[in-house]
Structures are given as structure tokens and as C-alpha cells.
Amino acid sequence: MSASSCEAKLKSKSSSLSDAARSSNDEKRKEKYPFLGKGAKDIDLGECDKFWERVMKKKRGRLWYENGCEFWDNCEATVDAVLGGFGFVSRADAIDNVETLKEIMYKELEVDEMKKLNNKSCLDVGAGVGRVSETFLCEYFGVVDILEPVKHFVEKAKKDLGQKVRNYFQCGLEEFEFINDNNKKEGGGGEKMVYDVIWIQWCIGQLSDEDFIKLLKRCEARDFVVVKENNCRSGFRFDDQDMSITRSDAYFRWIFEQAEYDIVEAKLSTCFPQELFEIRTYVLRRRARSL
Ligand code: SAH
User: How far is the CA of 270 from the centre of ligand 1 (A)?
Assistant: First the structure.
């Protein structure tokens, strides 16, 4: 399958009629759970809770994830393919990520100092061919692990990044238990994986609300969980090709609230082409539990 036939995570909003114009703040403020969905050709899909009930019912839930992975199995293992033909934004994206790191996450540390310290660990989630690790994470984090369910993407990442990445976990996000089972054969394994940063970029639309919230609750990040994703104008947009949804800003905020996370900052990127959905980076911290 050619890269251009893979309409992937970096989605153009042109196919979404009601996303043609960017949302006004008033419109955003009005939005509340349950969020309303739209599919291809702007067809109404109703409220999100009912939508998830329908698609996750019994065996269908497994199919949702299997079909999603099947789409990616048929995608070329290239940066351009994982970015749906928008490979050219990868450099701007890396610069944007460094800015998030310097200005929001680790303000107190000069970046050079951070590189020198080399003591932070990070998990690159839904890593595809390892683009985010290669262009950004491996440069700033002493330890980087990759989590990605699609075999030939993991293989490509291994080929390009080799020892720069410590662990390659081939697993879906919905089932990853943050346990290192890779060295089970040698009698090891079972080690609980805790990171300083968990970086989730352009992949969380594959997960249902329930699985997204469960993931946030079971992962352990000492410093931050970062979610960088497309935002549609309101509610959600369902893509039946790769079995994913694009959530609005209000929808993401509702999810973080359910999972009991605080938003340190939600940064709207200004470096991407106008024809794309709005892209936000949510820097999150688990809410401190009151005793
Ligand atoms: N984050 C990467 C890749 C984005 S493409 C980047 O920015 O370059 C979306 C990725 O999500 C693909 O690699 C796809 O295989 C992965 N993905 C699909 N279903 C997933 C799931 N259930 N859990 C985790 N990742 C998934």
C-alpha cells in the first residue's frame, strides 16, 4: 500500500465538513459530556457513551483493536506513511516538542544540562517507526523505551535506532501492563516499568474512553504524562479506516478529569499547516491524592 493511500494519524480536517472553520471559544465552552460524534460525510453518530457501548460490545471490542492494527499492518514502515503523507512536518514537530520540554516540562534545567545529566527515562507510546524517539526523545532522555503493537514498525525502529532504545515492547496500549516481560525466557521479567515521562503522540485516538482512562490510571510517570493529539472542533470524529476517533479539546479535558489528572499546560501548536486539525500538547500530572 502506498503512503498516500494510508490516511493516518496526522489528519487533514478538509474531509470533515463541520471542521472547516476553527472553533470559537464560546462554542468550546458550551461543550459537555456526553460528546456528540460524526462519521464520514458528517453522518451523526450520536453520543459518545452510546457509541462506545455499540462498538465495544462483546467481541466487537477486540475487533475494534484488531481492525485498527490491520490498517497499520498494511501501511509502509516510513515516517511519511505513519504521518499520513505529512512526513514533511516531522522536523517542525520535533522543534515543537523540544520547546515543550524546555518551556513547560523542565523549565529549571538548561537543555544542555539536561542532556548532560542524561538521567531521565521516557516511554514513547504508539511509537510507529520510532520517529519521535529518533528526532527528539533519544537526544534528551538517557533511557528511552518504545511501545508499539505493529510488528514491522517495531522492526523498522529497531533497525534505525538499535541500542539507542533500551526496550522495544510490541504490544497494544490497551493491554500493556507496564511490566517488562521481554526477558522472560532468560528467567527474568516481571519488572514493573516506571518512567519519568510517558510520551503519547498521535495514537490515543485508537483507544476507547474506558481504555484511555484505565491506561492513565495504571501508568506511572514520576514527572509527566504528555499527550499530543489532533483536536476536532467539537465532540468526536470517527474514522472507520483506521478505527480511531479524533476528540475535541473539551473531550480530552473530560477524560483527564475522569482519570484524575491535572493539566499543567495545554499548548496549542502554531507550527503546523492550516489544513490540519488543531494540535494540542497536554502536559499532565496525576492529581495528588488527599489523605
Ligand atoms: N507516534 C508516532 C506514530 C503515529 S501513527 C509518530 O508520531 O510518529 C499511529 C501509531 O499508533 C501507529 O504506529 C499505530 O500502529 C499505533 N497504534 C495503533 N493502534 C494502537 C494501539 N491499540 N495501541 C498503541 N498504538 C497503536
Answer: 23
Pocket residues for ligand 1 (CB within 6 Å)?
Answer: 8-9, 65, 68-69, 72, 82, 126-128, 131-132, 148-150, 153, 172-174, 201-203, 206
Does the model's pTM come out above 0.85? yes
The candidate with the shortest Cα–Cα distance to 282, out of 100, 160, 67, is 100
What value, to the nearest 5°, has the Cα angle with vertex 24 and ends 20 and 26? 140
Q: Which atom of ligand 1 is nearest to the CA of 82?
A: 5
57-97 pLDDT tens trace: 978 888 999 999 999 999 999 999 999 999 999 999 999 99
Output the residue whose Cα is nearest ligand 1's atom 13.
128
Say how far apart CA 138 and CA 159 lie, in whole Å. Answer: 15
| CA-proximal residue: ligand 1, atom 1 (nearest) | 127
Q: What is the DSSP string of 71-97?
A: HHHTS-SSHHHHTTT-GGGHHHHHHHH
Distance in angstroms (rounded) separating the CA atoms of residues 235 and 46: 10
Which long-range contacts (C-beta less than 8 Å, at least 24 apart) are formed by 256-263? 256/216, 256/282, 256/284, 258/209, 258/213, 259/212, 259/213, 259/216, 259/217, 260/217, 260/286, 260/287, 261/216, 261/225, 261/285, 261/286, 261/287, 262/286, 262/287
